[in-house]
Amino acid sequence: MSTMSRYPRPLETSEWNVPQSFGTTFRWEYEDGDEKLLNLYAKGKRLQWDAAERIDWSQNLDPENPEGLPDELIPIFGSDVWNRLTPAERVRTRLHFQAWQISQFLHGEQGALVCTAKIVQQVPSMEAKFYAATQVIDEARHVEAYSRLLHEKFALVYPINPHLQRLLADTLADARWDFTYLGMQVLVEGVALAAFGLIRDKAENALARAVTAYVMQDEARHVAFGRLALRAYYPQLTAKERDEREEFVVEGCYLLRDRFLGDEVWETLGLPVEACKAHVDRSEMMRVYRTSLFTRIVPTIKEIGLWGPRVQKAYAEMGILGFADADVEALGARDEAVAMEMDARRQEIARTVATAAA
Q1: Which of 29, 229, 237, 315 could form a disulfide with 321 if both were Cys (CB 3.0 to 4.6 A apart)?
Q2: pTM above 0.70?
Q3: Nearest-angstrom CA–CA distance, 158 and 97
Q4: Spatial separation of the C-alpha atoms in residues 67 and 159, rounded to whole Å
């Protein structure tokens, strides 16, 4: 069956074309690379993996709670609408909300695939082209993994969320190479890591946890790539140029915050959309959830030097200014460690099974 047959509502088209106009940079100096970026490139090559082999796709999802996530993570949990749902309706809500969330990961990963290919073309340094090339295959692998999870296990796919689509359009449309980094490597990848982390740490289903943990291992490098490239470049900009980028960051963060409201799900399920939105807007749980999504973005924005009054004011209003001093490198190290621990457990199980069969 095609993907188009799995969308809950028919789509007008199977394509989205984004007009772009930017230059492609060739570089004839091959030996003056930044050592940290070259080390990241070496790491990216060393840690490549095959989604068809590293993940055990024979595992199934629970039909009543596919990823085994607590209902508290559903935005309308505890609302009058939720409390009126029958057990069967709650099962359907879990399926649709989880499929919607993973669908946004899938579309976001395709966005990252396209953006990183653009970075290979645009970025002026050779070592950045090297690393970005490894990320292109990373992103293709992530699209493959999430597509397979949705097609084979959920049999349900949601269209791209309008807020995410707008941010991707803004990121791709700007001809300046650093905006591609800023929109994708810092904003989209940063908030995705936080959302991934909730699934990896809260999901009881082994397949859902494995897909997410292995994707996160790669994404930790991708955010580091953006930090390394931009913190060296932004001090060279004028105040006006930094102000333009801060305006982009503020707008992008609001789009990302509103991306997780899930309006499309409530509408598809035939639930009262306005009542659902009203609950999400005033829910303390959703406030904490939405703010926690910025744990990776805020310290990165501060580190790369986009820390003017406009950004700080917006972050204070969003309740996320307190994340400014979070240790992004430590979070990334944990992402890598969790994935390696899962590999070790999988290998130990395989050895035990082999020994028992001998």
Answers
A1: 315
A2: yes
A3: 9
A4: 20
Q: At 299, which amino acid appears? A: P
Contact 122, 24 (CB under 8 A): yes
Span 30-76, pLDDT tens digits:
887 789 999 999 999 999 999 999 999 999 999 999 999 999 999 99
Token pair in block for residue 334: 């944990």
Nearest to 289 by CA among 328, 250, 262, 270: 262
Among all chains, which residue has been given the structure tokens 């409201």?
A: 261
CB count within 10 Å of CB 157 equals: 21
263 and 273 in contact (C-beta within 8 Å)?
A: yes
CA 305 to CA 344: how far, in whole Å? 39
Q: What is the phi-psi region of residue 255: left when phi exceeds 0, alpha when psi lies from -120 to 50, beta otherwise?
A: alpha
**Which candidate, 259, 90, 63, places its Cα nearest to that of 156?**
63
| CB neighbours of residue 288 within 10 Å | 10
Task: Give CA separation, 12 vs 43, 102, 158, in Å.
Answer: 42, 21, 14
Q: Compute the distance between CA of residue 25 and CA of residue 122 in angstroms, rounded to an integer.
A: 5
Dihedral sign of CA atoms 99, 103, 109, 113 in order: positive
The answer to whether the CB of 85 falls within 8 A of the CB of 77 is no
